[in-house]
Model the fold of this input.
Amino acid sequence: MCLCFSSVPTILVSLPKAAAEFLETHDLIFASRPHLEASKYMMYEQRNISFSPYSTYWRIMRKLCTLDLLSNLKICSFQSMRKEELGLLIQAAILLPRLRP
Done:
């Protein structure tokens, strides 16, 4: 079944055999994201990991994020900073209702 969400044609697959065909045989064709003009202007010519088309650049960005940003060692190293920022957020949430007229 083919549906159009806004201007993006979307294929809905409900049979396991058809899903295997899409995910195994034609995976590179369907792995990319749609080209949207808004993401071109707002997201640095689609150069971030969430809007970049599937390519060598996207695979390198994903690898960098996985190894350098989201590794267990990196997450633990920023724990104190996250606690501090969470404290500031809670303080702001407590003070904000008092500051409103």
